[in-house]
Amino acid sequence: MQPPTIEITIRKRPRTDAVITQRKFFKKTARGKVIKEGHFLLPDTNVFLAQMDLIESSLFTPPILILQTVLEEVRHRSLPLYNRLKGLVKADDKRTWVFYNEFRSQTAVVREENESPNDRNDRSIRKATSWYNTHLSLARPPIQGQPRIALPAVVLLTDDAANRQKAAQDGIKCMSVRKYVEGAKENSKLLDLLSVAGTDDIEPTKVTAARQALYPEYLPTATIMAGVKAGQLHQGHFNANQYNYLEGSVPVAGLDKPVLLIGRENMNRAVQGDVVAVEIFPESEWKAPTDEVIDQEATLKNDDADDTDEEVDDQEDVAERKVGNAKRVSAERQPTGRIVGIIKRNWRSYVCHIDSTSLTSSNTTSLSQQTVFATPVSRLLPRIRLRTRQAPSLIGQKILVTIDRWDNTSRYPEGHFVRSLGKVESKEAEQESLLLEFDVPYRPFGKAILNCLPSEGDKWVVPPKKDDNPEWRDREDLRDLLICSIDPPNCQDIDDALHARPLPNGNIEAGVLNVRFTKSVIASKEAFTYEEAQIRKDDPKLNDDLTKSIRLLNSLAIKLRAGRMAAGALNLASPEVKIHLDSSESSDPIDVEQKELRETNSLVEEFMLLANISVAQKIQETFPQTAVLRRHLPPPRTNFEKLQDILKKRKGLTLDVSSSGALAASLDKCLDPSEPAFNTLVRIMATRCMLSAEYFCSGSVGRDTFGHYGLASPIYTHFTSPIRRYAAHRQLAAAISYTTLHPSLHSKSHMDRVLDVVNRRHRMAQMASRASVEFYVGLALKARGSRQVVEEDAFVIRTFRNGVGVFVSKLGIEGLVTFKRETQFDADNYVITVPSSESRGQTTIAVFDKVRVQIEVEKDRNTQRGKVKMTLIHPVNSNAL
Q: What keyword terms does UniProt attach to this protein (predicted)?
């Protein structure tokens, strides 16, 4: 069989006229400084791995040839970058082509004896480049008597000096990424996009003869893997401490508490989310977490981005010594250790702002390259050092920055500028930064997805019922039933259809009580809000059939809830607030209030839970190995130790965590007659001691671990809210023989991979939701104009040596209040004693105390960004401390 002769494929002609009329090849670089003739670029694998931000930039316009060898190597080394590369090939505004060099006899190469895979791939890339140049030269042979036509060249782009040397020996035109970019148009902006990790000739941050190592070298990968296998080292995800940037932790399998990491050296250049290898110290060296707030920005505010890293900031030295020598609660000691290697980096693009104080006074308007600090908006991340020519124009902007490398001789990681998101505090920039920071995809749906929707769009209506109409295939007509929905105000995804009616035999037919699964067509008689449904249910003057149906549903829901509680289900709490907008067309918030939970909220919840449990049973019976289920594992008892201790010492209350039922009963007894909100606060704190619920594949875990601890249900899934839960719906449709299941959904390994992504996306969406509440609270306060400052009651939920953490239930937000003056801290009893602001006496503040705080939006002097600031005004004024 002959190999395919097609040389360029997977590239549709761009649809836009502007692109169609362009020449395929690049005439020359700017003013012909680097390449005088027309050319195509052929990057090697490492260029795509390290310089994708540059390649994707709209300012980077040369046509690009992507070899099959390169495409496959990128796929094996980084799936996210591979997906970005595929997107690049399909993009209309980029001239990119894929050449299947491995399928062509003239360009395919066989790995030689003792040749490494990397060397083989480099040789394959050079051979394909050479062949392509020859191929282009034969496309237009010279005609006697006519001027010679200038033909384009294929230029190999590589930052591997050895590869460039071998290419030059073969007569192949090649160059480094930096050299090519320096000769391009818009080179000042393109140079900012260069990853410092990818270029072998990029200028160093500081030229020094021998830089002092500030961190230990990582162990070799083989040593790490052997150590983990032997149990001498432990693997886990690094978590930074949001209150103290000089501490972190790593949860590891088999230990009740995470491994504590104290100080920069022991955290050894790990970044939030990295998979790391840790060495645990002997038990005699174990410590408890520090009880002091140490803020990175405040500690390092005088640091200079251009300083050599040996010039360690004095304030950080003091902070490190304080952390190392701090008095700690011996009862809270936990495994302590150090990071000895990175197994997998979690680096990505981070939302940052340029630290204006890192610009020298002489460079505040200069367009020359300078080194500055980019401060991430997340408190969990270190400052990033970057070089840019755009620093003055980026002040006051939200920007994206990618970390490229973190050498053991550098106090900070180094990175590069990706793009600006817009002006700090502008709603558009802040909203996009929230989505980017929590990795929430927000690009428009692709054509393949949109093609699944009816062509009529939002004008689609249910077609007339006919036997030959595919829309009615295998669907029951339930339009005569009194069905309604109950949702929050302005809800767009109205998907909880409810109904109940008495039957002649005395039974009750309800929407999901009769466990019979079917596709159907309904006609909702009313779309209620929770408040509207509650008013209708409670109005004794209303006795129509729809109102009776709501009352019947509510009576059933009460019995369902009682049954769950008797089985040991937990009634937990989480802070939920309602944002009031200026109008239905506007997204400008004008006020915030705590959500009011009504009886109708519980009504909907109970039937949603019942539907989810019923679907879980059905799909697990039909697909025992691949059913998409959701479980909530029992938390380790150690998770509750601190809360139990606080309750005992501050309120004389006990918390029994031996089972979910025991926990539910003891939570009911956690009451303070003088403070009705106390019980809700305890439930919120108990919720934070729990493990997170997770999606899982039924065939991947033991049947005894299927249960949902919080709901006291032996099996559960997420079926309701179908716009977010396609997998369970597809499985249910297949389980009732309405459709067939795609072959991939029968693969346990495939489902495991899918659900890993789903779990991660779910966590990130939850964090984005919490962050957006604080953002909108800030906007609502700003909308008050001169009345921006508000006072609210708050509860102390944590005490530190130099501050307190407070929770404002009305706004659903937490805040940190710090004290600058000396305080007395009783860590054993969770009490801080501060000088009284009104007399020479002292005031004690403890966990669970009710305090009064002043909340305002303060503009940060450095970032110019508004952030919610809390100040204690009772029992003391923290401004005086």
A: Exonuclease, Exosome, Hydrolase, Nuclease, Nucleus, RNA-binding, rRNA processing
